[in-house]
Design a protein that fits this description.
The chain is 6% helix and 45% strand. The protein has 293 residues and is mostly beta strands. It has a domain at 107-292: Beta Barrel (Porin). The strands form two sheets. It has an eight-stranded antiparallel beta barrel. A three-stranded antiparallel β-sheet has the order 2-9-10, with no helix packed on it. A hairpin with a 2-residue loop joins strand 6 (193-214) and strand 7 (217-239). The model is unreliable at 43-51, 121-128 and 130-134 (pLDDT under 50).
Length: 293
């Protein structure tokens, strides 16, 4: 009897559990009517679709939110595929950088040119010899060269040498060489075509073959004159490259004789009034090129 006491005690404890187990639906059988109602409502699967006759709509799965597109670099626009959000990233507008200011460097230049002198009509005679009219062939032509130093964009110094040959007012054969020093003012130094004004001084020497009547015909004396004067002009410089340019200008000058014989033998004598003068003027037309370095 003592050995059966524990068995009876276990039977009493587990008897209700065995009874509930017998009421459960055995495996393999349809026992829907025998299931006890549950206190909590059943949870429906989100993937099961309800029938068309069901008045309650199915519970849909939460929409899938695509991950945000990667960050776009500045200044670019990226459009994601259709149906997703569009993110546009634009670079903010910035003020343009200031232009680079190039520092001016003084430079030298060599100007080479062709030139001609326009000689006006003269009412004077040479050394008292009356001349009815100026010679039709009056005019002089020659070559010139200048060493030019452009120390700032708008100004340059020009030191020139000119060699001319031809006939003067009276048709006498003449050769001249002149030294000049001028200041050039470039009005628009940043342009491809630059307008400039010039002014300066010049010193020149001339040799003139003057014919004289002699006992057995006509001969010729070689007269030597020297002059000093001022000049003014204007011109254009066409900058082809940074180192090379073309130029053309016109220079007017007024000068007087400075040699020792100027007072005793004036160059021009009026055949009408007898007045004398050693002052002359002319216009010089020049065209050439300049090489800078």
């Amino acid at each position: 009897m003592r050995s059966l006491a524990p068995v009876l005690a276990l039977t009493v404890v587990f008897a209700p559990a065995l009874a509930s187990a017998q009421q459960a639906c055995p495996p393999g059988r349809y026992c829907e009517e025998q299931e006890a109602p549950s206190a909590e409502p059943p949870v429906e699967d989100a993937q099961v679709e309800s029938s068309p006759a069901s008045p309650e709509p199915p519970v849909a799965a939460p929409p899938h939110t695509p991950p945000p597109p990667p960050a776009a670099p500045r200044g670019r626009t990226i459009v994601v595929p259709p149906g997703a959000r569009v993110i546009i990233v634009r670079q903010p507008e910035l003020a343009p950088p200031p232009p680079v200011q190039r520092r001016w460097h003084p430079h030298w230049g060599l100007n080479l040119r062709l030139e001609g002198v326009s000689l006006g009509a003269s009412a004077y005679a040479a050394n008292g010899e009356e001349i009815d009219r100026p010679d039709d062939r009056a005019g002089m032509w020659g070559l010139g060269a200048s060493l030019r130093y452009r120390f700032v964009p708008s100004f340059a110094l020009d030191f020139g040498l000119d060699l001319l040959k031809g006939r003067d007012y009276h048709g006498f054969e003449r050769t001249e060489n002149a030294l000049s020093a001028s200041m050039l003012w470039f009005v628009n130094p940043r342009s491809a075509v630059q307008f400039y004004l010039l002014g300066g001084f010049s010193s020149s020497a001339a040799r003139v073959s003057v014919p004289w009547p002699q006992d057995e015909g006509y001969g010729a004396d070689l007269e030597r004159y020297s002059y000093f004067g001022a000049q003014l002009g204007m011109g254009l410089e066409f900058r082809i490259t940074r180192r090379y340019s073309l130029n053309t200008d016109v220079v007017g000058f007024v000068r007087g004789r400075t040699d020792a014989a100027a007072s005793s033998r004036p160059e021009y004598v009026s055949p009408v009034t007898g007045q004398t003068t050693n002052t002359s003027s002319a216009a010089l037309f020049r065209g050439g090129m300049t090489i800078y370095w």
